[in-house]
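Handout, section B. The chain below has 541 residues.
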Amino acid sequence: MAAAVLCVLGLSVTVGSPARADSTAGGDLQVAQTLGDRDLTFILRRVTGLPGPLHVDVLTHRGTAAGTLRLGTVPTGASADRTEGASAGTTTSSVPVKLGGTPGSYSAALEIDRAGPWELVVDDGSRTARIPFMVPGQVTSPPELAVFGGFVTAGVLMLVTLFVAVRVRRGGWVLLPAGGVVAALAVAVTAALLSTSLPLPPEPGGQVDATNDNVSDPYSAVRPVTNDYSRPPASLELGSYTARAAERGTLRLSVTDGSTGLPADDLVVHDGALMHLLVIGPTGELWHLHPVRTAPGSYEVRLRLPAAGHYAVSAEFARRGGGVQQVRSATGLTVADGPARGGGTPAPRAELAPRGPGTRTIDGVSVRLTAPSPTAGEATTLTARVGDTPTLQPWLGMVGHMIVVGPLDRADATSPTRMGRAAQDAPVWAHGHSMGGDMSGHSAPGGHSAPGGAPAHDMAGMRHGTHTAGGEAEASSMSGLMPLNGDSPADETVAAYGPDASFVYTFSRPGYYRVWIQAERDSAILTIPYLLRVSPAGGAK
């Protein structure tokens, strides 16, 4: 009976294991896309078996126009077996998705027939976005094979030992299969003990380029002698932008490898998007967009820039195995005044004018910012209370985002026409995240959620730092947002966070800083601009 159990365990590892999408996170893949006039979030649910369906949810925000998208799946991986890669580049499954005029989730299912790299093709009738994703196959590692193989062999040899002991009268013959049992058990136990210390193979799609072969069985590939999969920095180039103020135009971007000049087509999903594009206009308005990938290394986004003047541009993305990069365009954009506008720069909306800490109203929502006495070189906690109820939705995997630009002199920081040029020349650009996702809706003592910090990417020196405060209180508040045990992170259909979004940031220099805090509430993205004065270290507040 013991031998039979061991045989069953051994056979169980030879049965094909299910595949799943986005092996890096162990769950669903969330990708934000600015497709034409629509800001959409695509959620690619994990594939649980091959062949099988890929369920895609399209989440819309307030103001999204109704219409129809056509989704398609295209395998892209090369294979040593020509028949396996015969359909690479060909749409294998296609389905329409009708978007309504109200915010919500719209679903579709497409067929996936193999493990490997794929693209989700999204066509809105005027342009096409191509979202890369992975469907890895789960394979048994060599140590696991050794463990189960050893136990199965030991079980079989145990039966042989019993048979020899009963049928053969010479006791010496029993030692041969009995010795085999001991050897097989030794192999199984040794493999089990060593399996935890053996390094995993490089992850296709996350650390190394993916093909059908190494995705189906990453252990079949030859392991590199080093675990450094990093790649050179990438360069960002802006295409010509000919649209005038208040006209709709297309901004094209090229991402090239810093060492070869070739298109960098190894961007991976980072914080819910392939690329985060920040545009700051002359009036101080901020756009946080997610360009669509149209070809290897090529991205584009539709813009309607309201005012003539200079616009500063930066992009944040992650290369496969190369970490996060934040690249500021050296040129930015200069937009000419439109002939139909009669000249002049429109006055920004009163609610978008920068103010200091305090209470203000944005799109009908009351927001209160507290930022006690920021001082250069010291960690500062900024807490924005958005509304009065815990109804914030996670946007791009976070409860809140904070963009920081500065230091600026007061004239530039408060100018309604020169902010784009001032931002272009500012020493510091930073993008911080609020990591306090308390699903319970309870606040920390004092009326505010426990402060939490996340990596802030500083363009001045490409520094990456983490600031945390609150100790165990922060960890407990994060538990509702961060995925556990391979589960998928919360998406925008959840509204149980806040109302506080806290950030911890260290301003490196004194001066005036423009700060934009972003959060999602009622399926609308709120962008709240602020003006902060940072005092010199040891100086007067």
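Note. Residues 4-25, 438-480 have pLDDT under 50 and may be disordered. Compare this with the example in section A.
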